[in-house]
Structures are given as structure tokens and as C-alpha cells.
Amino acid sequence: MAVGKNKRLTKGGKKGSRKKAVDPFLRKEWYKLQAPAMFANKDFGKTIITKTTGTKIASEELKGRIVEVSLADLQNNEDFAYRKIKLCIEDVQGYNCLTNFHGMDMTRDKVCSLIQKRQTIIEANVDVKTTDGYIVRMFCIAFTKKDAGQIKETCYAKSAQVRGIRAKMVNYMTELGNKGDLRTLVHTLVTADCGKDIEKSASSIFPIKECYIRKVKVLKKPKFDVTALMEWHTESANKVDTGKKVAPAPVEGVAG
Question: How far apart (Å, rounded) are the C-alpha atoms in residues 73 and 90?
Fold first, then answer.
């Protein structure tokens, strides 16, 4: 016998040594993803995980998973297609994954469409702490624009003007983050036009356009609390009291 020859590799070796191909999806199961109640579309998708085997529990493996979804799908509004929302799975109840806000971003094509020649890009970022203990980093972007009736082709801002506008951005974002909890902050970012407020406050320094809070990242979270998470997923916590409809008063006829 030759040195190093393996008997098992010879023709007609052990029968049944080759494993049968098993479909890997037979060992998987699907879980529903549920967004916080502030969004119009609560059930926004599904995620897959290997079934519980031994010490590997499927629900525990799912916790901490980050999912990215378009705001247009969450709000059923195509105007928000340029916004991306990151949600983190924090708890699993049955086959439902309860998610919490983890971050927000803009699509690359939207940012690229804003960048043009002959203008100044102004960017700012700030770390803020919400009242419920979250530390959030917010990024803002804006572009200078021509003044009304301007003939000059370029609209570059001086470094002092850029610093002034950046200070306005930081002040606005700090005030926005510190005045309430994370749920209030996310609701404001999703529904309100924060960029317009910054444009208005910075107009005294230099006219700017296309101002957006470009990105939001959750840097630090408080200790996990099921009660706090359930508040995100209850309808009553996110409803705004708009009052009751009042029926119009009946018009009385004038006596002839």
C-alpha cells in the first residue's frame, strides 16, 4: 500500500457516506415585525430565524436585530421615500417582534441630488440627551442659495457666516432633543418640517435652502423596560386630543 493512501476514497468505499441534501429552510421560522404605534403601518414585514434547538432559543437570538425600512412604507406616503428608518427588535411576544427606534437616515440618491456647484454645504452635528435617558446624535445639512434678484452666479458663504449658521443648527437640534422623550423627538422628526424652522432662523445670516436633519443615531439606551416599550406600541399614548366635532347650529327662518 502506498504511503498516505486513504482507503475511504477508493472506488466502492463505504456506502451511504454521502449526506443527503436537506433544505435549510425546513429549520427556519418566520416572525412578524411590528413598528411603534406612531407609524401608520404597524405590521411592516417579516424576519426569519433558525428554530429553537438546544440552548439556542429563537426569540433570544432575534433580540437586538436591526431592520431598515423606508418611511414611505411605514407612513403609506411616497413623499417620504428618501427617509430610511432603523428599528431594533427589543422584545418577542409569540411570533410578534416589538421594535423600537434605532436611527434615521437619508437615501444616497437624495443627498447626491442636493449637492451642486457654486454653493456652500453647511453641516452640523450634536449629541443630545432626552428626558427618558437616551443619548442621540443628530446630523444636519443645508446649502446656501442666491438672494432674491441676485445676478452673481455663485453664492458662497464666508467662514464666519458658516459658523453662525452651524451654531443656529446646533441650538435648534439641542432644544429639540432636550425638551422631551425619544418618542416625542421621533414623532417631531417624522411629522414636522424641522428644516424650514432652521432656514427661517438662519435667514438673517445668509439665505439657505434644502435644510434637513439628515441622520439620527441612538448612541446609548437606558436599561430595558417592558412597560416603556409597550408605551411605544399602544395607540392611546400616541393619539392627540383634537376635540369633538360640533354640529352646525340650525338656521332659523326670519318671520315675515
Answer: 21
CA separation for the pair 156, 246 (Å, rounded): 53
Predicted model pTM: 0.79
Residues in the chain, overall count: 256
Q: Which long-range contacts (CB under 8 A, 24 or more apart) does 164-168 make?
A: 164/202, 164/205, 164/206, 165/122, 165/202, 165/205, 165/206, 165/208, 166/122, 166/123, 166/124, 168/198, 168/201, 168/202, 168/205
The b/e string for 125-154 (b: 16+ C-beta within 10 A; e otherwise) is bbebebebebebbbbbbbbbbeeeeeeeee
Write the CA distances from 139 to 160, 188, 195, integer angstroms. 20, 15, 12
What pLDDT, in 10s, does the model give residues 144-194? 998 888 889 988 999 999 999 999 999 999 999 888 888 989 998 888 888
Strands 28-34 and 43-50: antiparallel
The overall longest dimension of the chain from CA atoms, in Å, is 127
Give yes or no for residue 242 having a pLDDT over 50.
no
Q: What is the pLDDT of residues 205-225, one digit of tens each?
A: 999 989 999 999 999 998 988
